[in-house]
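TICKET #2291
ISSUE: user wants both folds in one file
ATTACHMENT 1:
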Amino acid sequence: MSEALLPEDRQSFGDPVQHAFEVDVDHLLPVLDTEVVQGGDQTDTLYRNFPTREALIEAAYRNEVARLCEAVPGLLATMPPREALRAWTRRFIDYATAKLGMAEALRAVVASGTNPYAESHELIQAALTSLMNAGTAAGAIRTDISPTDMFAALAGIALTSAGPDQREQAERLLDLTLDGLRPTPPREPDN
């Protein structure tokens, strides 16, 4: 099982892998194919660190998950919690769109006997929990919606609207979902 690569590790592997991690994940396979065809020292470096195409794809996928989750502290440090949550949900849709672009490649990884998704759910759930805890602590979002509920809503948006040509719909659905997180004033009792 491959681990997500640290930025310094990405740079040390040479150009093919660096390109693979810097471009959108859905462009990973054409970059890999181009680099393999070109050959040379870079290909040797690539296969020394990733002995199979599936190992590289798994590492790229795990890297995308890590990038998504590692963004949370920076977002919370630079913007109010509600805005940080909104910015992160947009990144989540970017991640989901990239994952759709890699669907066939990820199926090949699973078929090879590894599970690239083994830790992704827990990592994403922890990132979302941090954002929602910050939002509830600031009084910016409702306290009766759990991070698990929010993850289910995001997963639904991703399933229905994560295609590249559906971005406007995904943005509207994110806005709708986040509007539903606004705290509501206490209701006056009926007389």
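ATTACHMENT 2:
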Amino acid sequence: MSKRTQPDTLRRERHPAAGAGHRPGAPARATARLIADHVHPGVQALAEALERHLRTDVPANLYASWHPTEAFGIHWDDHDTVIVQLEGAKRWNLCGATGPDPLRLDVEAPEKPEGPSLAEVALQAGDMLYVPRGWWHAVAATQGRPLHLTCGLPPATGHHLLVWLAGQLLHFPTLRANAVSEFAASLDACDPGRPAPSLPPAHR
């Protein structure tokens, strides 16, 4: 289980309304986020219980809204999320995924969805919602000053496994040494990260 953030290092973030600048007399902020899994004992207990059951780190964020603007616009997350509505009400427009298993640092960004949403879900206090990784969604306050808790469920992918294995290989002196000359000579000078073809173009 990972070490948890201490209270004096917690971040509080506020996000402007999406697609609009500040206007005199209009709310300058629509949503605020608090990383809460070390602030409230109940939230910490929930995050730790999910970690034990699902075998993954579970960050927990609180989101407060006081304006019906979709503060983040339509977006997707690179992990599954479990939403718990604590106060007020929010509308969730769910559009599904437009690419398989997207990652935040990926080779290609997924396209924005076209057409109507798959579902529109109204969350009231006490409701829960599961949003799969990669699903596009937009959220807006609909009643009161809503407060909801988001528990992130980061995936364990094959990429993570390879990164872990690469770290373990650093224990071997041979693999810490400079690359052998044959490998260094095979690298394309225009693209250092890609091995050059072993055959000239005429023979491929």
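RESOLUTION: both attachments delivered.
EXTRA DETAIL ON ATTACHMENT 2: Residues 78 and 175 are 32 Å apart (CA to CA).
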